[in-house]
Design goal:
The protein is mainly α. 60% of the residues lie in helices and 0% in strands. It folds into 2 domains: 2-34, no CATH class; 37-113, no CATH class. It has helices spanning 2-10, 20-31, 37-54, 58-63, 80-88, 92-100, 102-113. Residues 60-79 are annotated as: Disordered.
Amino acid sequence: METRCYRRLLGISYKDHITNEEVSRRIENAIEPHVDLLVIVRQRKLKWYGHTTRSSGLAKTIMQDTVNGSRRRGGQKKRWEDDIGEWTGMELRNTLRKAEDREEWKAVVRRSSAAPRRIPNLRDR
């Protein structure tokens, strides 16, 4: 998905037979080194998890699966918390405890996402 956007930005068609590695090299030359989209998604998802865990709203109730009732058969196999546990390397109960402390959770997000603190925008240059 990401490479498709880069090809469009650079005006490169798939018919031009240019490899994805070459497209990545060209985009890095055009906008300098960048953070991968999946790293940004991981970082934002971890931040949202910490935010909702500290709150007391509907999002927390839904995310922690405390809503009464059962889900339909054939629903999703992987839950939101499964990603959180996989990325942080912690069990769910430990992530809940860590997320309650904002500064401690920020440290977990930095370690887990391997992304810089601030991602510069193109407009900042």
